Amino acid sequence: MEYLTGFGRPIGTCPPRATLDSDAPRLLLNGAWRFRLAPTVADAADGFWAAGFDDSGWDELPVPSSWPMHGHGRPAYTNVVYPFPVDPPHVPTDNPTGDHRYAFDVPAAFGGAGIESVRLRFDGVDSCGRVWLNGVELGVTQGSRLPAEFDVTAALRPGERNVLAVRVHQWSAGSYLEDQDMWWLPGIFRDVTLLARPAGGVEDVFVHAGYGADGRGRLRVEGPAGALVGVPELGLSGLPTGAAHDAGPVEPWTAETPRLYTVTVATPAETVTLRVGFRTVAIEDGILTVNGRRIVLRGVNRHEFHPDLGRVVPLDVVRAELELMQRHHVNAIRTSHYPPHPAVLDLCDELGFWVIDECDYETHGFELLGWRGNPSDDPRFAEALVDRMRRMVERDKNHPSVIMWSLGNEAGVGENLAAMAAWARERDPGRPLHYEGDRSCAHVDVYSRMYAGHEEVDAIGRGEDHVPHLPFILCEYAHAMGNGPGGLAEYDALFDRHPRCQGGFVWEWIDHGIRTDRGFAYGGDFGEPLHDGNFVIDGLVFPDRTPSPGLVELAAVYAPVRIDVRAGEATIRNRYAFRDLSHAALRWRVTADGREVSAGAEVLPHVGPGTAVVVALPSAVVPHEPAESWLDVHITDATGLVLGAGQARLRAAPPPSRTATAVGARVDGGAIRLGPARFEPVHGRLVRLGGLDLRGPVLDVWRAPIDNDRVGPDPVERRWRAAGLDRMTHRLIGLDPTGDGLVVLTRVAPGGAGRALLTAYTWKCFDDETVELTVAIEPEGDWDVPLPRLGVRLELPGALGAVEWFGAGPGEAYPDSRTAALVGRYSSTVDDLSTPYVYPQENGNRADARWLTLTAPDGRGLRVQGRPHIDFTARRWSTAALDAARHTADLVPSGAVHLHLDHAHHGLGSASCGPGPLPQYVLHAAPATFTVALSGVGAAS
Ligand code: GAL
To answer: What are the coiled-coil residue ranges (predicted)?
Structure first.
């Protein structure tokens, strides 16, 4: 099996070229193929490539497909580590081998007059495919996410039934070059196409379409000599290939204004049609520009993943996904870490994205060997690596959306990377080069980093690094694993502040969870001996592409319009680089206690790109009601999409009214009574309020660790558990019914440790509905760990399922992820307040509630008032159960509603891969006091 160990070189393939839309005959060979999986190459079927081979007993498998997603073998997930011994170029003997066969009729046109040759193209075969047509061996594919074309002229039988046979191996020498952080999913996972090549046709074209400062297009098309170029919309026709042309005044292509022109390149034998955008990418004075203007990449890293299909993503799903990105103001995509299906880039051209197209190359597993033997510096891999770069550039060179080439990801350093860069630079001087792995930046045009903290990005912004002459981007930042990321707004502020900091790409777009009947699976769920658990669940959207709260936050942070609201006016700042706001409208509303009291619209004056205006809002006046009042301003486009939002408080809430003096507590048999409240004497906890049974507020500092607490080089969870924060005990020190209330003194401390939180609960009652609780905490002993949270928890009857509040919302919010949450009145249910993170963890906090109610269908319930604000979380399971769960299916309602009222939370940060919460979001154990009022509502007993 020499081809398997051939250092990643394909065999018998044609020179790479662009994916072109041509009028020559073509035939898509996707469909129901025959399939048989063998555990080793030796076990695979002998002679299965013969046209007459009997495959009637074989299974059917759709092509394209990742075969483990169809019941053959199993998916396996590793991040950095290779799942096979590192022994290049050798591969395991146990090498799952999938034999594929497909019989199809070829129209006679493929053999018609004027057809010189026929090609068979594979857009993606993972990892290596040996190909026969009608029993004739054609060659071998390598480079899973890159196209391979074979000349099948001699083997093809036009006008007859033909049989294609492909033997796909899960492992090949190429696997050493494809160690991306994702599931290992073998298969023919992209289209298979038969393409007729007319004699004298258009084999390839390279369109160079620039945009000049004079507003004119520059057009040069590399193509066959004698071919003629036309741009009908510009009145251009019959232009020769090879020469530079002035295309006259054109509308430029940008990601914000994705203007495309149809270009034809024709010979008498063939016409190809392209959608072309006029745009010029440059680096000018250390700034990355398009059409002469600085751009900011508000990006995400996009993998190709589908929860049911693996690496196959149907085109309608891709379109919906890209539209979803745009509705969340994502303007850039890094195709981590391989070129996507070619149609994805067509959509990026059409919808408008800045794209970094990344080569199918990663050797991260060699890092674990100190980079010894890294293919990047092994001459035996040189040819395969330059071939990969060539195949990406040639395939994608005509896409205006692609503004940079990336050599790959996490592949160390070495001569082969230098050769890839040199080849690309020579072939396409019109696009800068990117590669994060070489800090020296010897071969690239931008300084790129992953997961640099805010402070470092700020320093880079000030030019305090080793390459201050280069633009700076974060090719990965803000690890979106589980609940998070935190700190997005602060990164965005740095991109706004420093011209050289030109944005970045959140890691990553999607959770790679595989759908099973027990919820979404992650690493280890398929019995893999070596795996990286839920590290593959780190996206802004859930596996089914439902937005997570992280994406909602991202949308608010990436918003193209910033609005700074003050009484009577708003400053509108347009953060587009190319668009004005003539497509947008301004709406405002004034609320009192969360209810709208007035609203209106205001005509937006001209707001050019990168400029700001002040809009007066004379009708938005402070309402008469003596209630907390806000002015909200939204800028929306014609579809209603919010381009920016802002709000300002017009009036503070009046102080709580106290009609009477506080009543005293009385001891009544075994219980203590204070107005409508009854307490048990053992722990001093509330057990009844009005008609409501509950288990009283107990100090709670624990949260079910989020991935950012749990994962990473120095997880804070380890320190939390060592400090005993997950097992605090509560000792009653004293219970003191006073003349004007009740004081319950406790010492909250973990077993085996000396540190404690002295906690005083001071209860007061001013009427027969409400009790007011002040919690005062005094840390005792050594507290060198932050607290996960600081608040109280209560258990309420399960019937209290309807929730309403006046505070930040509507979605979940944490101290370092609350740009998207606006103050208002919201309603939801206990069930809907929870976020179904694939790996269960703390979630669902609603911030800064002025008040909240939890109500049963019969009208009974609990009302909580913050004094002035309180965060809350309500769910149907305890924090302990959430902490213990590993999949969403483990979360079983306990029968109660578990309510947390929190004074403070530790931030989310991004420490599962990157920095923890910024210093201002670390929750230190320190003396603290907070107050809430609790009332039982509805029928009293
Ligand atoms: C980066 C890598 C990504 C992904 C991420 C963590 O180092 O480039 O592929 O592994 O870390 O999720």
So the answer is: none
Q: Do 560-651 and 2-198 have the same topology in CATH?
A: no
End-to-end, the C-alpha distance of the chain in Å comes to 83
Question: Are the C-beta atoms of 612 and 627 separated by less than 8 Å?
Answer: no
Residue 668 has a pLDDT of 83
For residues 480 and 914, the answer to whether their CB atoms sit within 8 Å is no
Q: What is the tens place of the pLDDT at every residue in 245-257?
A: 999 999 999 999 9
Ligand 1 centroid from CA 614, angstroms: 42
| Highest CATH level, class, for 2-198 | mainly beta
What pTM did the predictor assign? 0.98
476 is an active site residue: yes
Say if domain 560-651 classifies as CATH 3.30.540.10.
Answer: no
3-state helix/strand/coil string of 447-494: EEEECCCHHHHHHHHCCCCCCCCCCEEEEEECCCCCCCCCCHHHHHHH
Q: Which fold has domain 283-556?
A: TIM Barrel (3.20.20)
Q: Which residues of the chain, if any, have pLDDT below 70?
A: 1, 658-659, 939-941
Rounded-to-integer distance, Cα 194 and Cα 122, Å: 9
CA distance 811 to 800: 20
pLDDT at 157: 98
Predicted pLDDT of residue 940: 47
Catalytic residue at 410? yes
Structure-token match 């802002």, residue found: 646
Q: Which of 77, 78, 79 to mutate to test the pocket of ligand 1 (most atoms within 8 A of CB)?
A: 79
Q: What is the pLDDT of residue 738?
A: 85
Provide the token pair at 94: 């146990």
Residue closest by Cα to atom 2 of ligand 1: 181
Do the beta carbons of residue 681 and residue 672 sit within 8 Å?
A: yes
Burial of residue 214 (CB within 10 Å: 0-12, 13-18, 19+) is: exposed
Pocket test for ligand 1, best of 368, 481, 507 (most atoms within 8 A of CB): 507
Please, what is the Cα angle at 829 between 828 and 831, to 5 degrees?
Answer: 130
CATH of span 666-937: 2.70.98.10
Q: What token pair was written down for 176? A: 């050493």
Supply the pLDDT for residue 766: 87
Atom of ligand 1 nearest to the CA of 409: 8
User: What is the per-residue pLDDT across 438-469, written as a single tens digit (0 to 9) for each?
Assistant: 999 999 999 999 999 999 999 999 999 999 99
Q: Are 758 and 656 in contact (CB under 8 A)?
A: no
Task: Determine which one of 178, 321, 410, 602 is catalytic.
Answer: 410
